[in-house]
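Q: Sequence in, structure out?
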Amino acid sequence: MSEEQLYETYEQKVNLVKEMSSYYSSDEEIDVEICNPKIMKEFTKIDQNFNLDLDIIRGIFGSHFKKAMLNDDNATDILNNFYNNHPFLIPFVGKDYPKESNKKFLYVLESHYLPEFSDVYANMPKKSKNKNEWLKEQWYKHDFSWKNLKSSPNREISLYREDIEYMWTERVVKNNIKFNNRFKAMFEKMLKISISKDKKIEIPIESIAFMNYFLRPAENTGVSIEHQYIDSLFSYLNLIRVWKALDEPNIIICSAKARKSFEFYWGLHKNYGKTYLIPENKFCLCNHPSNRSWNKSMENNETSEERLLKFIKNVYQ
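A: Exactly. Output:
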């Protein structure tokens, strides 16, 4: 791309943000949104209200901390500034998300995707150790905030309009829930206990929060992410922060890869101590609703659907 094309792409992104993001909505526009922009804006301030101690982080992850190519200084800094630097990944929060109730739900899937011809990972090295270092410097530490989103031929990663559209959580929910039948069918499976035959899928979505577990898009369109140590570490810690920011909702993780990663580090966390540990009765671990494994038996000889229904019924008892 020429510099003129890069600049034009950035201008398109600026316009896209203003058109699509509730961050720029007026009070009148908010009334017709399905999300709660006031809560969503607060995610950029998480570090002011909740700060994971570095000793806890090192205690939970042990040797994995070093394998993620992290040191004491940049681990907490990256975590505390993640949504400031990656605002397109801020979780979706429905406009009717409960303020005072134990019936709050945070639905968590695996990861976003990228357009088929995206070159976001074109320069990522092949060796695992090098991938962790590269991802730390080029993805997790880098400032991709709206004001600094200019593409540059000198950058290892340049995000273009199509890349943003594919991994912008708010836009993905808003757009796909209206026009993508496969996306609607996926949410209907996860929310079916809340939907009567005369209700549209948009209604229950307005009462939940939603995010993807891994904090970067998968390497290939339509294929599971090849997550590294650094991805697993920050994804687990970030989920705790989101859980606290949303007033400790019930978490439903629907992805085999995400649930296994979460469960592994949750076990390490439990062995280390209970500070900021999400209680076992506050999360449900299932397979992806679009995968054939959704209807296959897991542990305790129950399917994902059976496990999910049992979990939600227990919340409402």
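The radius of gyration is 19 Å.
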